[in-house]
Structures are given as structure tokens and as C-alpha cells.
Design brief:
The protein has about 450 residues and is α+β, with helices and mostly antiparallel strands. About 55% of the residues lie in helices and about 15% in strands. A hairpin with a 5-residue loop joins strand 8 and strand 9. Helix 6 runs antiparallel to helix 7. The N and C termini lie far apart (about 105 Å).
Length: about 450
């Protein structure tokens, strides 16, 4: 029993070294060639040398017993065959076999043959799985087969037979167990590395696709400021910051004619790609409908109808839409459940626009939208925003809130343009959150009636 324990411990030490070096091998460029099934001739030669060296180490680190050597020599060629195919396995086996023959002994010939056979067997398993990584159970069965073959060849060819029988009786269990464990551990490492590689590739591909999706999304909303440089009657700016690569916030503006400017902002329920797709549909409908009528409530109703059709995902978008009269400063607007924008008076006052009747678009085709009006005096500003502003959270979970928003806006004077007004709000949000993670999209549209042209 003590001999069994000693053999098991020594063989485990030898196997552990092979597994450690094999793990380092999985971090090399050559290993990536193996995984990607693009192994070159030079790569095969390197694999033969590497796993042949594993085989030599298995012999040198073995334990001499009863005129033979208990070892992990077959592990190298078998692993080489599993990863590189029959040529690699047999090549590594020949190296291990040649070195074993130089050591002599009554088991030299059967041990050498068994080492070559182990490499060939690993290559056969490689072919059976068509070059794919063999599962752990298959690798362990391979080790069981190769070591059983090793013991059989020793009994068949080694003489004197009684000495061979005694040797096999002492080493068969520890050699089979240790080699099987070694094969299983190595394949587990290899398969985990393959899984990590595939996961990493999928992640990189997804990140690339999301980047393209974000570029497309940002290309949908206006991004050139000032958008109407020839118009001196008003100042306009907007920004969209997604909490993820893509989000569901939107803003838009366009001239109906020389005297009427449309302003819109919205927030789609949910996050990620579904929200961004719903956002794209919404803004497309908004532009199509907005150029046909100047009535804000009618615009929302016409956008709502197609959004409700075939909306199996039950998504919706809160939407604010306004038509501004450039000549008079009159603002007619409707809201589909969106937070009311704030008027920033030239005199320093800040007040929310009265809310209108309505709910999120896409929720129901029976929603009725109301309409209200407001008057912007010379120098007055208007901030449209999504709830990512007021619901921005600090590290303790506290929200930025309406009062902090009003305080930030009250510091914006009539001399400040729309961009400066938005920057004051963004600065206040950043100061409040103090680096905490952004959980929601932050979108703002700032507008100011130019005082010098009234």
C-alpha cells in the first residue's frame, strides 16, 4: 500500500509539471492556431517537439521500480495527437520512444511501442471528432486505453514474464489513474480556453455591432450645431448620452416653413437594441407626420396609431412635441406622458410647462392627446429633457430631482445660449452623481428666443 501511495504521489508531481507547462502553452500564438484549425507545417513541427519534450519529461521524472519505470510518458504524445492529429501524435511519440530506448531495460521495447501507439491513438480521437476539441470524458477514456495497451504490450513482449507481471501489478493502477486525471485536467483547461476565446470573439463582435448601431442611432438625430446658422431669431442645441452603447432616447427639430419650428424629445421604455429600434421607428414616423400638419396633438395621434399596431413587445415612448412660431414666440405643444419642459425666463424665473392630456405612445390606440400653448418672451429659454436627468443617481441611490434641475437652470442668464444652459444642467448632474454609474440615457434639447431680434 505504501508503495502505491509513493508511486501515485511521484507520478502526480510529474503530471502536474506537464499540466502547468501545457497551461502556459494555451497562452501562446501557436495554440491559437490549433484552436482556429489553421496549423501550418512549421506549427506541426513545433507541436511535435513540444509534446515530445513532455514525453521525455514523463520518463525522466518517472520512478524506477522492479527494473522498469513508472511514468507519465504517454501523456505527451496522446495530448499532441488530440490537439494536432495523428502526425503530431506519432511524431511526439517517436521522440519519447527514442529517448526511452536509450535508457535500456527489459521493458524498453514495449514501452517505446506503447508511447508511439499513444500518440497515434490521440490522433485517431482527433479524427473521430473531426478536428474539434475532444470532450473531457473522451480524453480520460483515451488515457485508460493507452495505459492499458502499455501494460498489455509489457506483458506480451517483456521478458522474463514473471518480472514483467510483477511490475505491471505494481504500476498499472497508479499509472492509469494519474494519466487519466492528467488528460482530463488538460482537456478541461483547453476547453475552458476555447470557451473563453469564443465568448471573447462574440463579445468583440457584439461590441462592434453595437458601435455600428450607436453610430446609426446618432446619425438619425440632428448632430450639427448651430443647425440653422442663418436664423438669428433663436438659438438651438441638443445632446444625447446613452447609458449603454445604444438607447431609446430621441430628440428632433425641423422647420415646417420659414415661420414655424418643430421641437421634439422622447424616451422609449426599456434599454439597448430593442429600445433603439423603437426609437428609430418613432423618429421616422414623427418626421413623416410632422411635415403634414402643424397641430401637435394631431401629430402625436398620427404617430401613436402605427406604433400600436403589431406591438407585441408592449413597448411605448413618452413624447413631447411642440410647434414654435418664430415671429411671435408662441409655443403650441402636446405631451404623450413626457416630463414637462421648463421655461427659463429672461428675468431668472424657472417654471414647468403645464402638462397636457395624453400617455405614452404605443400603449393604446385610444389615447386622446391634449394641446396647450405658452408664450416665450425675448430672451426666454426652454429646456426639453428626458428623465435620465432628474433620475440620475448618486452613489447612495439619491436622485437629482426637479429642484436641483430648477436650481441649475435658474443660474442660466439670458446672455447664455442654449448650449450654455444645457452645460449648466450637465455640470450640476455630474457634480451630484460624483462619478456614480449612469443608469439611464441623458438627453436634452435647449432653446432660447434670441433677445436681439425680437
Amino acid at each position: 500500500m505504501q508503495l502505491f501511495i509513493d508511486l501515485f504521489v511521484e507520478l502526480t508531481k510529474s503530471m502536474a509539471v506537464i499540466i502547468m507547462v501545457a497551461y502556459l502553452f494555451t497562452r501562446t500564438r501557436l495554440y491559437r492556431q490549433v484552436l482556429e484549425r489553421r496549423l501550418s507545417r512549421q506549427g506541426r513541427v513545433l507541436l511535435i517537439l513540444i509534446f515530445g519534450a513532455f514525453s521525455i519529461w514523463g520518463t525522466l521524472a518517472g520512478v524506477e521500480i522492479l527494473g522498469g519505470i513508472a511514468n507519465t510518458r504517454d501523456l505527451g504524445p496522446a495530448l499532441g495527437g488530440l490537439l494536432g492529429g495523428p502526425i503530431v501524435g506519432v511524431g511526439a511519440g517517436l521522440i519519447g520512444a527514442a529517448q526511452r530506448l536509450t535508457m535500456g531495460g527489459f521493458t524498453a521495447v514495449p514501452c517505446a511501442l506503447a508511447t508511439v501507439a499513444a500518440g497515434f491513438s490521440g490522433g485517431v480521437v482527433y479524427l473521430l471528432f473531426k478536428g474539434r476539441l475532444a470532450p473531457v470524458w473522451a480524453a480520460m477514456l483515451l488515457a485508460l486505453f493507452t495505459e492499458s495497451l502499455h501494460m498489455g504490450l509489457t506483458l506480451l513482449l517483456a521478458r522474463p514474464y514473471d518480472q514483467a507481471l510483477e511490475l505491471v501489478g505494481e504500476v498499472i493502477v497508479p499509472m492509469i489513474v494519474v494519466n487519466a486525471i492528467g488528460m482530463g485536467v488538460f482537456m478541461l483547461i483547453v476547453r475552458n480556453e476555447e470557451h473563453e476565446r469564443v465568448t471573447r470573439m462574440q463579445k468583440e463582435r457584439m461590441e462592434g455591432e453595437l458601435k455600428v448601431a450607436r453610430d446609426i442611432q446618432l446619425g438619425i438625430v440632428p448632430a450639427i450645431f448651430p443647425p440653422f446658422p442663418e436664423r438669428k431669431e433663436f438659438d438651438l442645441h441638443a445632446s444625447l448620452e446613452s447609458a449603454r452603447e445604444v438607447g431609446g432616447d430621441l430628440y428632433d427639430f425641423f422647420l415646417l416653413d420659414d415661420d414655424h419650428l418643430c421641437l421634439a424629445i422622447g424616451d422609449v421604455s426599456g434599454k439597448g437594441v430593442p429600445a433603439s429600434l423603437f426609437m428609430a421607428v418613432t423618429i421616422t414616423l414623427l418626421r413623416a407626420v410632422g411635415h403634414r400638419t402643424s397641430l401637435p396633438d394631431e401629430v402625436l395621434a398620427r404617430v401613436n396609431a402605427p406604433l400600436c399596431r403589431d406591438n407585441d413587445a408592449a413597448m411605448f415612448v413618452t413624447l413631447f412635441f411642440a410647434v414654435y412660431d418664430v415671429r411671435t414666440g408662441a409655443l403650441a405643444y402636446s405631451s404623450g406622458g413626457h416630463p414637462p419642459p421648463y421655461i427659463v425666463r429672461a428675468g431668472g424665473g424657472v417654471e414647468p410647462l403645464p402638462q397636457t392630456a395624453g400617455a405614452g405612445l404605443g400603449a393604446s390606440s385610444k389615447i386622446a392627446f391634449g394641446v396647450e400653448t405658452a408664450q416665450l418672451a425675448c430672451g426666454d429659454g426652454l429646456l426639453l429633457y428626458t428623465d435620465g436627468v432628474t433620475e440620475a443617481m448618486d452613489a447612495k441611490g439619491g436622485m437629482f430631482g426637479e429642484e436641483r434641475l430648477k436650481a441649475a437652470l435658474s443660474g442660466a442668464g439670458p446672455q447664455d445660449g442654449a448650449a450654455a444652459m444645457m452645460a449648466a444642467v450637465r455640470s450640476a448632474v455630474e457634480q451630484f452623481t460624483a462619478g456614480a454609474e449612469q443608469y439611464d440615457d441623458i438627453t436634452m434639447l435647449g432653446f432660447r428666443r434670441a433677445g436681439g431680434t425680437c
